[in-house]
Description:
Elements: H1 3-19, E1 26-29, H2 35-46, E2 50-55, H3 59-71, E3 75-80, H4 86-100, E4 105-108, H5 123-151, E5 154-159, H6 172-192, E6 197-204, H7 213-216, H8 219-227, H9 237-248, E7 259-262
Parallel strand pairs: 1-2, 1-4, 2-3, 4-5, 5-6, 6-7
Helix pairs in contact: 2-3, 2-9, 4-5, 5-6
Amino acid sequence: MTASSNRSATETSLTCNEARELTGKVALVTGAGRGIGRAIADRLARAGATTIYGYRADPATALAAVERTRASGGDAFAEEVDVANPAQVEDVVSRIAETHGGIDILVNNAGVLARNAFLEIPLAEWEQVLRTNLTGSFVVSQAVARVMAGRGRGAIVHISSTNDGMASARCTAYAASKAGVGMLTRQMALELGPLGIRTNAVAPGMVETDLNRHELADTEFHNDAMRRIPIGRFATADDVAEAVRFLAGDAASAVNGVTLLVDGGRRAA
């Protein structure tokens, strides 16, 4: 065999190993029935993780996502989990840990977006956004981190937003909740790091999802958003999923307490 053939075989082997780098790990992804959450869950499963698709409503959609992942060779399951319901979160986390022997990766993706002018935001809307996006991330993280701490290892990834540090019109509740997620990420990195648990966040910019698809259908809104992105395109759900896979894996074993922007340079512009 030539040196070139040896090198080619080695590269192929490395590629295969990297593709299944999460084999043997158990991952929980909240809000995984559709959109970014579904892309993340599928990516982790394709990387070898046994992946639990957490969903709050629409079990048919979540189960269909699980079946698609299984059809491509992934190990996937669906679990109903409302991140705003602490008792249900505790039950689901305990059941996953008992059934699968633990939880190695948590992705807090479940979230809601409500747009309203500051002076028009109802208190109930404000509370719902913070309860889901910020308190929900805390509740699930605390329950899962207790499981991880008992095993001395784990990786937690919050899905934040470029709005964690950038104001946008009619986005007060959402931006405030994501800014809170940014500080929650750093606090958890500080306190959980000594227990072997890394905490990071991924902050997507504009990604077409069910949360904003109706807005992007507006030509003026779409074109204005696009003009602000140096690379000339929106990030995709797969772009976000790939960033999460990196932060969840051993290649990021020294990465703790960071927020990785996936925004095409929007915040740099």
